[in-house]
Amino acid sequence: MRLRYVPEMIALARHPADLPWPTTDWPEGELAADVDAVSLTDALRAIRDLPEGGGVSLAMLVVHRGRVVAEQYGPGTSGETTLISWSMAKSITQAVFGVLVGDGRIDVDAPAAVPEFVGSQKSVITVRDLLAMKSGLEFVEDYVDAAASHCLEMLFGSGSEDHAHYAASRTRLHRPGDVWNYSSGTTNILARIAGDVVAQREHGSTEEAMRAFLGERLFGPLGMTSAEAKFDPSGTFVGSSYVYATARDFARFGYLYLRDGCWEGRRILPEGWVEYARTEVAVDPEPPHFGYGAHWWIWRDQPGSLAAHGYEGQYIIVVPERDLVVVHLAKVPADVRSPLLAQLNRVINAFPLCRAAI
Which domain holds residue 261? Predict the structure, then answer.
């Protein structure tokens, strides 16, 4: 498989040799002396006490140098509460493809195995095009206007029985690879591809095979015991939107990417897969103009970073140059997201650059 790389990418540090991996329990620690504790405390307080009308923060977790150094929860929420991922699940779908690529079971540059594409102009769409959100397929990602939104129609309307079929049946508007268009439908096409590949080797239904695969190859090895994926009635993992987990388990997923896809001395994701995830292929035209890689966002003011984003202010932010994972779970409307993002940046910037990144 051919991957593309960014020449000057912030290096991914190794897990500290004197620290246990967080498979069973997260190591906890005090803030290091080089952390701006005052700024961090102020930012955490501002996130906890979002302005009126600014939504509610439900969980906040910071992992620095392999240890949990800050953690807080909102109303009715604790460390045992499983919360919805929304579109953070897209990045989990990218990890599923990483495992399958590592197994040699998927080639990202081959035409995507999608029945609805056969015999049409869509037959040249590759897995790489889908992972980059550059399939060329028509899809309106709107969470408010039901009359215009393909996303709402897919999840809750005529496409609710088979999300991937609904998305794959959209018209091809552009040549694949040319136009970036963020699309939950694209991810559900990918999720069905992955499910079909997994089911070819496993016994039982596609849903049973994918549940087992997620448990045995991803969630299980990381110790994500709370993680639960949801499936549509056709048996396809709703990779666009539906994984439930605790904040600590979402942090485990982010930590896998911080450590270059390795866990406890073995490789979960193939070499180069994290670099592929954070190699920018597009920039969101909407403020604050996040970059986009392969089913991961990029915080362009945090070099080398990658982030999973969810609809209501869910974030897993991986910042290699600060050896940092930040998790935030919430119910924050998109139109009042700016104060939250500003405070999350304050949290990140309270931590020092790694020596290798200076």
Answer: 1-81+246-358
Q: What is the CATH number of the domain that holds 43?
A: 3.40.710.10
| C-alpha count within 13 angstroms, C-beta hemisphere, residue 257 | 35
Query: pLDDT confidence of 5, banded at 50, 70, 90?
Result: very low
DSSP-assigned states of every residue in 85-149: -TTHHHHHHHHHHHHHHHTTS--TTSBP--GGGTTSGGGG-BHHHHHTT---B-----SS-TTT-
- Distance CA(176)–CA(135), nearest Å, equals 5
Q: Mark whether 281 and 338 lie in a shared domain.
A: yes
pLDDT of 332-353, one tens digit each? 998 899 999 999 999 999 999 9
| Paired residues of 56 in beta bridges | 331
What is the spatial distance between Cα 87 and Cα 76, in angstroms, rounded to a whole number? Answer: 23
Contact 111, 163 (CB under 8 A): no
- State pLDDT tens for residues 93-119: 999 999 999 999 999 999 999 999 999
- DSSP annotation of 69: E
- Domain presence at residue 325: yes
Query: In what order do the strands lie in the sheet containing 67-73?
Result: 67-73, 56-64, 324-331, 314-319, 306-310, 297-298, 291-292, 282-283
The answer to whether position 93 is within a domain reads: yes
Domain identity same for 253 and 156: no
Task: Indicate if 352 and 307 belong to the same structural domain.
Answer: yes
Amino acid in the structure at residue 210: M
Q: Taken in order 74, 80, 84, 85, is the CA torsion positive or negative?
A: positive
Looking at the structure of the chain, the number of domains it has is 2
Query: Can you tell me the distance from the alpha carbon of 69 to that of 322, in angstroms, rounded to the nearest whole number?
Result: 14
What tokens does 242 get? Answer: 């539906």
